[in-house]
Amino acid sequence: MKTFLIILFLTLLLNNCADKNAFDNFNLSATKELSEDSIESLKIKQGDKIAGLVNVIYLNKVLPKRYKENEYFYVYYYMKDKNATVSFTLNGEPSLLREELPAQNEFSYLTSFSAPWSKYYLVGFKKQGNVLKLRINSNSAASATVEFVKDK
Fold this sequence. Notes:
Elements: H1 2-17, H2 30-38, E1 40-46, E2 49-58, H3 59-62, E3 71-79, E4 86-90, E5 93-94, E6 97-101, E7 119-125, E8 131-138, E9 143-149
Antiparallel strand pairs: 1-2, 2-3, 3-7, 4-5, 4-8, 6-7, 8-9
């Protein structure tokens, strides 16, 4: 009987915790929660050296009513070389839209990060298949690739 009560107590304890996730302790909107969960962060490398950091949000997943015609990404990055320029390709195709944004912009609410030393972009591409490989290239031969797989 004692073993049964212990097992019952542990089962109830674990069952009560099962419906919670990491976002339950924060007051986040559904869109903010989805965007925080969808952020992909990478190091931009030049050989063995880290040249910068990049963060990407696939906007079609986070804001599907607004972004459905093409493929859209909110990209913010920091490069150690302040004079570095970057380009974006999706599955080898160049971007159709590349709009530089200020640090405080219409997508700032999607992240918990804002810094004046980073660069912010809205990047758009023509519609692609289910696997999206966004490549960030700098003029100093540093690059990073992030992959998104669409929900079917």
